[in-house]
Amino acid sequence: MENMLGKEVAEQLVRTAALEAVKEFEKSQKKNNRAKVFQNARKLMENYNRICKSVQEGVSELSDVDDGEDLEALSAEDIYINSIIKSKLRSIVMIAHIDTCLRLLEEEMNEKESPEKYLAFRYYYLDGMTPESIAEVLGNCVGRTIWRWISDLTSILSVYLFGADAIVLD
């Protein structure tokens, strides 16, 4: 009887430990997902000007898209060209989405009477300025403050860009 009771206690301890381990794993996954969304927003902004330049100066023409031809009828070169065109189309859609989200971010900062935060964000990502030079332009702040503003606004932008996927719910 005593042996059976010890076994039940051990099983209960194992179940409790397993549940706690699962909870901790889920918590770390949520944190990792949040970090990934933040990194994706940062990467989009770091490459925004390159994407725009690629779309503006790319050699493909949207009128070159084949009208529903079967894939088998296309040569390898045609498939490659079509993939470039489709990439350009995705880039155009992404730029439009980013532009809309940037407008929303700017409006939010203006409503919060913090336009300097948006300017710092814009100067950093779109104009390629350093936090130190931004601090000089804006005055009354230091590079560390600029870094904090950029990080804060990148988090807000990630919600505009990715919606609910950017929010970690506990």
What is shown here, in short?
The protein has 170 residues and is an all-alpha fold. It has a domain at 2-46 and 98-166.
The end-to-end distance, rounded to whole angstroms, is: 42 Å
- Give unreliable regions as ranges: none
Number of strands: 0
Number of continuous helical runs = 5
Mean pLDDT across all amino acids = 82
> Whole-number radius of gyration?
25 Å
Q: How much strand? A: under 5%
* Helix percentage: over 70%
- Summarize the main sheet: none
Order of helices and strands: HHHHH
Going by helix content, strand content and strand pairing, the class is mainly alpha
The shape, in one word, is flat
Polypeptide structure, described:
There is one protein chain. By secondary structure, the protein is mainly α. It has a domain at 2-46 and 98-166. The chain has 5 helices and no strands. Helix 4 (131-138) crosses helix 5. The chain is flat. The chain starts with a helix and ends in an 8-residue tail after the last helix.
